[in-house]
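Case study 2.
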Amino acid sequence: MTDSPDIRSVVRSKYGEIAKGSAGCGCGPSCCGGGEGEAGRKIAEYVGYSSEELAEIPAGANLGLGCGNPLAHAAVKPGDVVLDLGSGAGMDAFLAAHEAGPTGRVIGVDMTAEMVERARENAVKVGATNVEFRQGEIEHLPVADASVDVIISNCVINLSPTKEAVFAEAFRVLKPGGRMVVSDLVLTAPIPDDVRHSVEAYVGCVAGAAMKDEYLWMMGAAGFREIEVVEQRSYGDASVFGGYEWLREATKAVVSAKIRAVKPS
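Prediction:
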C-alpha cells in the first residue's frame, strides 16, 4: 500500500469526506479519528493545545486531526511568514496567524479541495486577513523559493508516500536560517506487513509512518541541520479505533514526535 500510486487519491477522498462532515474516522488510530465539537476539543487538549489557544480559532477549524502542537516549539514572531503543510480546516494556521500578527502572513497548503474550501470559509467567519489557503501537494508546494520563515506541520507528512520530496520542498521554500517544526507519528519498531499494507491503517496515519531514525535521516538528507526531537510521547492511548481493534497492537510502536530543524544560513 505504501508504494501504491493510488494512496494519494485514497487519502484525498477520505479527508474530503471528513471536511464535509460526512465521515468520522472508521479508519483506526486518530490522527484522522477526532471529530468536531467536544470530541475534537478533548483530543486537541490531550495532544498539547491550551484552552486559551482553542478559544482563539474559528468554530469548525478543529477537526481533531492532530497528534501534537507544533506551534509550542515554533517560536513564531510578529512579522514572520509561516507555512502550514497539510493545513486541513486551518486550526494551526489560525493560531500561527495570531502569533505572526498583522505584519506577518500564514500560508496553508492542503491537497484536499474540500479542506481548502472549509479553511477559507473559516477565515471569512473571523475576518482573518493575514492567512490564505492554497490547494496543492506538499511534495510540490505552490510557494516561492526562500520565502518562508517558519514551516509547521501536524500529523500529515506520515501520509505522504514520498517523504523525501516533502522535506526537499520544505528546504527549498524556507529562507536561510528558517526553521521547520513538525508534529508527526513515527515508528520505534517495525509494524506487521498486514498493517503496513492496510488502507485503513494508512489513512489512520499508521501504515505510512516511517521509522524515527529514517525520518530524521530524510530531513538531514534534504539539507536540514540542528535536527532535534524536542518532545516524544506514546500515542496509542489517544487512538480512536472504531471497529479496527486489530490495530491496537500495532500502535504500540507508534509515537508522536515533535521535531525541530533549521535551514543553514
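The radius of gyration is 17 Å.
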